[in-house]
Backbone:
């Protein structure tokens, strides 16, 4: 796996993080409404924020540090995460701030950071992913049981990873970016657009169209000095990544 997730020096308690190339920082977890009022199911999601690929998830009827530990350990093993390679950026839920989870992350050589309380901008990628889930046409008002929630989420995450064309990824799917297919897809789109231009150039008043560029890095709380600099995706130097899943 190429790339590195770099925690920058925070200003006060504000997390400032940058992920470049195929780095794989992760974040987690919202609640889903149960069958009656005041009942909930807890959704744990581990998201590669560079590719937006959901690399691990589970849903349970309780908020549990033990379940969080199991999910993190299994996902790191499945993705072949080496020590000192990964940063997990999480909310401040009970499970994610538990001492047992902190000790597991230390054993795995994983750096951890947390969002500030009640600040959604500190976890924007998870917030965006959860919004996509909530606004999915088939997302129910309530789930009848935890098995009902699991059945729905299996189909949802399959769709999200492999079929959902993400605006932040130049309209590629998370699967394309996560598994190093972005350069190939870019080339295919470029050829298709050029062919369309050659067939009917009068339709393209601005000349030969090009596919949207992709970023080479993602930020949580980009420093102001970096805001005017826009990273672009260079297909000639796209890192080829191979992950086991």
Residues:
């Amino acid at each position: 796996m190429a790339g590195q997730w770099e925690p920058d020096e925070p200003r006060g308690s504000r997390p400032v993080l940058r992920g470049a190339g195929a780095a794989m920082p992760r974040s987690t977890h919202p609640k889903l409404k149960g069958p009656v009022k005041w009942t909930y199911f807890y959704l744990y999601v581990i998201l590669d924020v560079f590719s937006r690929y959901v690399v691990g998830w589970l849903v349970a009827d309780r908020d549990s540090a033990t379940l969080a530990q199991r999910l993190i350990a299994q996902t790191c093993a499945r993705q072949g995460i080496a020590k000192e390679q990964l940063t997990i950026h999480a909310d401040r839920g009970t499970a994610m701030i538990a001492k047992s989870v902190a000790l597991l992350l230390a054993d795995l050589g994983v750096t951890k950071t947390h969002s500030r309380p009640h600040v959604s901008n500190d976890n924007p990628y998870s917030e965006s992913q959860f919004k996509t889930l909530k606004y999915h046409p088939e997302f129910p008002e309530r789930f009848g049981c935890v098995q009902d929630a699991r059945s729905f989420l299996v189909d949802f995450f399959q769709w999200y990873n492999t079929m959902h064309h993400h605006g932040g990824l130049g309209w590629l799917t998370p699967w394309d970016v996560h598994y190093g297919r972005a350069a190939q897809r870019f080339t295919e789109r470029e050829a298709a657009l050029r062919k369309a231009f050659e067939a009917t150039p009068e339709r393209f008043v601005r000349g030969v169209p090009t596919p949207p560029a992709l970023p080479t890095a993602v930020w949580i709380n980009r420093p102001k000095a970096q805001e005017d600099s826009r990273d672009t995706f260079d297909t000639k130097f796209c890192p080829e990544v191979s992950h086991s899943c």
User: Anything to note?
Assistant: The helical segments are 65-79, 99-108, 124-134, 146-162, 174-178, 182-199.
